[in-house]
Design goal:
Length: 237
């Protein structure tokens, strides 16, 4: 059983197309998306339409929720005034761009996905089992993660949201973050997704896919989104 999981596309259609082509070439039994289709990038409608046509089972991300329900807030943890100001530009621009039909699609995405495969209980979420916008970073204290895991019954927990891929085991539960397709933050600017192989054990691989970054960065600037979002694609920070 080989499962491909990806998330955090953030309106980067060129990265998404490359990842989907890479997935199509592989022999995966199941494919899932953990959300955040939109935000920060220049092609929200194209990204949503591509995901709709793919029929890949998809979870709602915090940015999808903010745009789909026109909340005017993405629930992101901005820490500086500059980040907050740029973030407000992004959520307003994206909400204005996304069509009513595509907003309806975002509103009807899954809140989580649970299944059993090869005897392993798997839970897929965007942020955490508790909150759509909770960050489960790799360096989070084990005691904190243990409390969170007490609320679920799973052998494997797969999440996104941090844009930083990792695989960690806490109290016997495999915690996997699938990284980001369209806005990596771990220093590697290639699109990233996770492959989980379930056999007699659990194997995790993070696949990196190159895509043309410069056209996306230029379009971010051309449509009036903050320049720092274009620069972040190059640095993956």
């Amino acid at each position: 059983m080989r499962i491909a999981v990806f998330s955090d596309i953030h309106s980067n259609i060129l990265a998404l197309n490359k990842v989907l082509r890479d997935i199509e070439k592989q022999d995966y039994n199941r494919v899932y998306c953990l959300g955040d289709l939109v935000g920060y990038g220049p092609n929200p409608n194209e990204t949503i339409q591509t995901m709709r046509e793919s029929r890949i089972t998809t979870i709602m991300g915090n940015y999808d929720e903010g745009v789909g329900f026109e909340k005017g807030d993405c629930g992101c943890a901005y820490t500086t005034d500059e980040e907050k100001m740029d973030g407000q530009k992004s959520i307003e621009w994206t909400t204005d761009q996304v069509t009513s039909e595509n907003k309806e699609y975002l509103r009807n995405l899954h809140d989580k996905i649970e299944f059993t495969a090869n005897g392993y209980k798997v839970i897929l979420v965007h942020g955490s089992p508790r909150r759509i916008n909770e960050y489960l970073y790799k360096d989070r204290p084990e005691r904190s993660l243990t409390r969170m895991l007490e609320s679920i019954d799973a052998d494997i927990l797969v999440c996104g949201h941090t844009h930083k891929p990792y695989h960690r085991i806490v109290n016997g539960v495999q915690i996997i973050n699938d990284g980001s397709v369209g806005k990596p933050k771990d220093g590697d600017n290639r699109a990233c997704y996770a492959v989980i192989e379930l056999d007699e054990g659990i194997k995790v691989e993070f696949k990196r896919v190159e895509y043309p970054i410069t056209p996306v960065a230029e379009e971010i600037i051309n449509v009036g989104l903050p320049r720092r979002y274009a620069e972040a694609l190059q640095t993956a920070r």
